[in-house]
Amino acid sequence: MKTLLLLRHAKSSWNEQDLPDHDRPLNKRGQKDAPRMGKLLKDEDLIPDLIISSTAVRAKKTAGLVAKACKYKRKVVLKHSLYGAEPAAYLQILEGLSDKQMAVLIVGHSPSVEETVEVLTGSLDVIMPTCALAHISLPIQNWAELKEQKVKGKLLKVWRPKELS
Question: For 69-128, what is each residue's pLDDT tens digit?
Fold first, then answer.
């Protein structure tokens, strides 16, 4: 059994209109929400074995704040292929992981995060606002089993920052 955690990046800033989309930073709310989700991971005993993030500034910063708050000790792996990606890019990354990784967190973007939840679980219309976290249980022993595209995981929970106390 593998655990996949999908996190949409925290709220980004639109203050600098001339910045390319890839370079937009987090706003104040995003800087507050990301550590809260990291604390949630720690409190729920869901500290990942591996964190993978899009290279977009807002995603990298979200991943860093979450990692620090949940006491993740390894390096965050950056994947440019997650920026503007289809679910297939998420699956391709997962399929190539070491089977030693039991729980993996991917920090990405909308609509890719929601679409990946749908592909892996069949759950339709999952709403993932900024910094929302989906917890998926996958009935596999090896990440490569995702290539078969017959795997149906179970969406255990979606946490949204506004719903946290």
Answer: 999 999 999 999 999 899 999 999 999 999 999 999 999 999 999 999 999 999 988 999
Please tell me the pTM assigned to this model: 0.95
Question: Residues 65-85, buried b or exposed e (16+ Cβ, 10 A)?
Answer: bbbebbebeeebebbeebbeb
Q: Determine the straight-line distance between the first and last CA of the chain, rounded to whole angstroms.
A: 30
**H/E run at residue 52:** strand 50-54
User: CA angle, corner 58, sides to 3 and 42, nearest 5?
Assistant: 35
Amino acid, res. 158: V
CB count, 10 Å around CB of 127? 9
Question: What average pLDDT does range 10-28 have in this prediction?
Answer: 89
Tens of pLDDT, residues 21-37: 898 999 999 999 999 99
DSSP of 83-148: TT--HHHHHHHHHTS-TT--EEEEEE-TTHHHHHHHHHH---S----TT-EEEEEE--SSGGGGGG
Amino acid (1-letter code) at residue 31: Q
Q: In the block, which residue shows the tokens 């017959």?
A: 150
